[in-house]
C-alpha cells in the first residue's frame, strides 16, 4: 500500500512506531498486498478492455475528462505493479531486506531498492490524487464551457510537476544529510508526511465542494436549455450527482484507514514507551488499520472503474475500435432536428439566430455528455427518454 512509513522503514535508525507496524507479521502483510494488488490489477484491466455486444462509444472531441479518467486508472495500475514487485522481493529475499537494518553495511542495494520502490509507489498514487483533483476541476469547467483538450496540457504540468516536486522534497528532507542519519527526530519525518498527505487531504476537502458546485451548475444548465426542468432532467442531474458521490465514497473508503493509522502512530511516537500496557488498545488499532491499508489501497483502481463506468462485463472484445458513449447521440439528435437548412432568401439575422441557438444547444449537450459517460445500460435508457435526447 501507499504509506510514508515505507520510506521511513528505509532508515536504519527508524522510530519505534514504524518498527512496530513493519515488523508485525511481514509475510502475511506482504501476501495481503500482493493478493489485493493482483486482483485489483486484473479487474481494472478487464474493466478497461472493450466488451462484446456493447454499442460503439466515442467521447466528444472537446472533452478532456475521459483522458483524465484513463490516466487515473493508469496511475493505479502502475502503483499496483510497484506494490506487487516490492512485496514479492520482500517475501522471496528476506535476507536481502534484512540488510536495510545494518547502518554501517557496505551493500547499498537493499537501501536503494527500499527507497526506489517506496518512491515509485508514493509518486504514482500521489499523481493519481492530483489527477482526481483535476477531474473535479475539469468537470466544473466543462459545465462552465471553459475546458477542452487544450486544458489537458495544463493538467499534465500541474499533476506531474507537483507530484514529483513534493515527492522529491519530502524524500530529501527525510534522508538529509544521509540515509544512515535520517529519522533522528520528528523534524525529518514531519515534512515528509506533510508532502505525502497534502494531495490526499486536498481531494478530501476540495473535490466535494467542486462536485457540489458542478451539480448545481448542471441543474441550472438543464433549466436554461429549454426553460423547464422536467422529471427526466431531474433524473439526469441525479445520475451525475450519484456518480460524483460514488467517486468520493471509493476514495474515502480506500484512504481513510491511512489517515487513522498515521494519527495513531504519531500519537504512539510521542509516548516515552509505546510498549506500555495502557497503550495496548492503540497498538492493536494501529496494527489492524495497517492490514486494512494493505487491502484497500490497491483496490482503489478497480473500485474507481466501477464508479467511473459501472460494471462493464466479462466478455472482452479484442478488436479495438472507437466507442461512442450513449450521451453522444444527444448532440447528433439535437442538431439533426433543430438545425433546419435556411433558404437563401432568408434574412441574415434569422440565419444567425438559428446558428447561435444550435451551437448553444450542442455545447450544452456535449457538456452533459462529458459528465455522464457512465455505464451504458441504465444511462442509455435514461438518455433516450430525455427531452434533450429527443431534440425538444
Automatic annotation (TrEMBL):
GO cellular component, one term: lysosomal membrane
Biological process per Gene Ontology, one example term: regulation of calcium-mediated signaling
Membrane-traversing stretches: 28-49, 69-89, 109-133, 153-178, 190-211, 244-267, 287-311
Coiled coil stretches, renumbered: none
Entry keyword Transmembrane: yes
Mode of membrane association: Multi-pass membrane protein
Location in or out of the cell: Apical cell membrane; Lysosome membrane; Melanosome membrane
GO molecular function, one term: dopamine binding
Quaternary organization: Interacts with heterotrimeric G(i) proteins. Interacts with ARRB1 and ARRB2. Interacts with MLANA.
Role summary: Receptor for tyrosine, L-DOPA and dopamine. After binding to L-DOPA, stimulates Ca(2+) influx into the cytoplasm, increases secretion of the neurotrophic factor SERPINF1 and relocalizes beta arrestin at the plasma membrane; this ligand-dependent signaling occurs through a G(q)-mediated pathway in melanocytic cells. Its activity is mediated by G proteins which activate the phosphoinositide signaling pathway. Also plays a role as an intracellular G protein-coupled receptor involved in melanosome biogenesis, organization and transport.
Name of the protein this chain belongs to: G-protein coupled receptor 143
Species of the source: Oriolus oriolus
